[in-house]
Amino acid sequence: MQVDGNQLRHALRQLVSGVTVLTTEEGGRPWGMTVSAFTPVSLAPPLALVCVNSSTATARHLLAQRRVGVNILASDQSEISGRCAAPGTPKFLEPGDIAEPAASWQTPRIAGALVALDTTVDSVHEAGTHQVVIVRIHRMSTSGPGLPLLYGDGRYLDLAALNDLSDPPLCK
């Protein structure tokens, strides 16, 4: 039996994940793209993996430039994520979205993101409709303590409102 793409999309929405926005520049303007697939790969060398839809303008920009910012958003940044995820619209970031430039930093950083990574494309692997991009992390900045923005079941979730499941009762 063949897997239906819409049914698979619905099923995979059950996975809750942090929200990550990739940043690059086009024509001197910062540009963002919300991605659902981001994961660390290696600490030595420092590598991570992102998946980008091959048909998007952002994919074309970051693959051409071979540089990409990776921003792990804070719980109060759903508006930025929504703008960078809206299909068929320009994904230019507003000046207030961007942090002050940092020395030797090569990619736009989103102000207030919990973590920002300055990376270059290490390798690209075609996978169906997407490109699996391995990035090498050169610089990192953190904004201090805060809660991450979460996404699951097609909506943003409030981590503070979730039950604390970190210490489950022992099974008897």
3D architecture notes:
The protein has 172 residues and is mainly beta. It is built from three helices and ten strands; from the N terminus they run αβββββαβαββββ. The protein has helices at residues 5-12, 57-65, 78-85; strands spanning 17-18, 20-26, 29-35, 38-43, 46-53, 67-72, 115-127, 130-142, 150-152, 155-157. The longest helix is centred in the middle third of the chain and has 9 residues, at 57-65. The protein is globular and about 55 Å long.
Question: How would the blueprint of this fold be written?
Answer:
Layout: H1 5-12, E1 17-18, E2 20-26, E3 29-35, E4 38-43, E5 46-53, H2 57-65, E6 67-72, H3 78-85, E7 115-127, E8 130-142, E9 150-152, E10 155-157
Antiparallel strand pairs: 1-9, 2-3, 2-6, 4-5, 5-8, 6-7, 7-8, 9-10
Order of helices and strands: HEEEEEHEHEEEE
- Please state roughly what percent of the residues sit in beta strands, choosing from under 5%, 5-15%, 15-25%, 25-35%, 35-45% or over 45%: 35-45%
Mean pLDDT rating: 87
Number of helices: 3
Give the total of beta strands. 10
The largest β sheet comes out as:
7 strands, antiparallel
Report the structural category. Answer: mainly beta
- The helix fraction, in percent, is 10-25%
Instruction: Identify the strand order in the major beta sheet.
Output: 3-2-6-7-8-5-4
* End-to-end C-alpha gap: 40 Å
**CA radius of gyration:** 17 Å
Shape: globular
Low-pLDDT segments: none
